Fold this protein.
Amino acid sequence: QVKMVESGGGLVQPGGSLRLSCAASGTFFSIDTMGWYRQAPEKERELVAAITSRGSTNYADSVKGRFTISRDNGKNTMYLQMSSLKPEDTAVYYCKAIRVWTSTGIGDYWGQGTQVTVSS
């Protein structure tokens, strides 16, 4: 069983910053890629940023230059540093472990989500 747990969400004013964390726990050999997704009310879930085990990253155009994704493979933890936040960044943020290698096979795992609200 692999469990993903996010933390760090909250209420922040426009222009402010937040740092999200996502920790993977359980029994597994490795995680190929980890990603942050978000879902705003009445909108589809979208990819925000992703990072491979080797550190290659990609970002949604809407967050480029404002968000930074990072990963500590030794701690099985991923981070999302969010700066210059805008009201349109308001959403539930989910982390996802993509292609997790376990003794029973390969699978993807989602966290439960953490709310980020950008408002004055």
Notes: The two ends are 40 Å apart (CA to CA). The chain has a mean pLDDT of 97.
